[in-house]
Write a structure and sequence with these properties.
Elements lengths: L2 H6 L3 E7 L6 H13 L4 E6 L13 H11 L6 E3 L2 H4 L6 H11 L4 E7 H5 L7 H7 L1 E5 L16 E2 L2 E2 L1 E3 L8 H9 L10 H9 L7
Parallel strand pairs: 1-2, 1-4, 2-3, 4-5, 5-8
Antiparallel strand pairs: 6-7
Bound molecules: adenosine-5'-triphosphate and nicotinate mononucleotide.
The site of adenosine-5'-triphosphate has 19 residues, from helix 2, strand 4, helix 6 and helix 8.
Pathway: Cofactor biosynthesis; NAD(+) biosynthesis; deamido-NAD(+) from nicotinate D-ribonucleotide: step 1/1
Function: Catalyzes the reversible adenylation of nicotinate mononucleotide (NaMN) to nicotinic acid adenine dinucleotide (NaAD).
Family: Belongs to the NadD family.
């Protein structure tokens, strides 16, 4: 890398992973909040390839990628990244963080997530390495995906403090988008208009 390249190389790099089946309005708000509050140079939006932790099969990656491209199109510094859908085997976040470390030498990485995922972090693959690779940044989440209220509400990963993102608690979730679509109800309050159109045009989430 030349000295000039080093001056302009991204120094604050975010990773926001998810099934994004489909991406909804709160995903977009969370990405915008992360970019602004963490002053990110780039935020990689990474749809999961093989979600080893989910029971249900995900919608084909090509559709989830296309919907992410629509949902995050207007978000400056967000970059939809297909890498996990192209990787064989389970999608492990630590693998993606290590790839980003190689691609952005010297950058500080930020791993962005909702609180439900933060509470489950200890079960992730190589969980102990996550907090070494990235600063873990968490947005609170309201029902129905909120974490158990009896649990410690200041989550930590084996002693690693998690950084809070300021985001008004939102009950939006992709399950409701899929359920409403299957019932023939409108989802325009839950997803961007472009995503609603894509769902309709490609007959996604419709009842059999
Ligand atoms: N309403 C929300 N508030 C805060 N974080 C959220 C919210 N919805 C999703 N997230 C976060 O976005 C990331 C990706 O979530 P995901 O794609 O699984 O969406 P979801 O709405 O949780 O989907 P599903 O209902 O299918 O479980 C996760 O880190 C999740 O915690
Ligand atoms: O690396 C892991 O073991 C791991 C376990 C659970 C979830 N994740 C990642 O967390 C992100 C959000 O997951 P989800 O279930 O909310 O879509 C997504 O990128 C998943 O691949 C990663």
């Amino acid at each position: 890398m030349s000295p000039a390249d080093a001056m302009t190389a991204p120094k604050r790099v975010g990773l926001f992973g998810g099934a994004f089946d489909p991406p909804h309005r709160t995903h977009v708000a969370l990405a915008e909040a992360a970019i602004a509050q963490l002053q990110l140079d780039v935020l990689h939006i990474v749809p999961t390839g093989h979600a080893w932790h989910k029971q249900r099969p995900l919608t084909a990656a090509e559709h989830r990628l296309a919907m992410c491209s629509l949902a995050f199109a207007h978000v400056n510094r967000a970059q939809v990244d297909a890498r996990e859908t192209l990787r064989s085997g389970p999608s492990y976040t630590i693998d993606t963080l290590q790839e980003l470390q190689s691609e952005y030498p010297g950058a500080q990485l930020y791993l962005v997530m909702g609180e439900d995922q933060a509470k489950a972090l200890a079960s992730w693959h190589r969980a102990e390495d996550l907090g070494l690779a990235a600063i873990i940044c968490v947005a609170s989440r309201s029902e129905p995906h909120a974490a158990d209220s009896s649990a410690d509400d200041s989550p930590k990963l084996q002693g690693v403090p998690l950084q809070r993102l300021q985001l008004p608690p939102s009950p939006l979730n992709a399950t409701e988008v899929r359920d409403r679509t299957a019932r023939g109800q409108s989802v325009s309050a839950l997803v961007l208009e472009s995503v609603a159109r894509y769902i309709d045009q490609h007959h996604l989430y419709q009842a059999d």
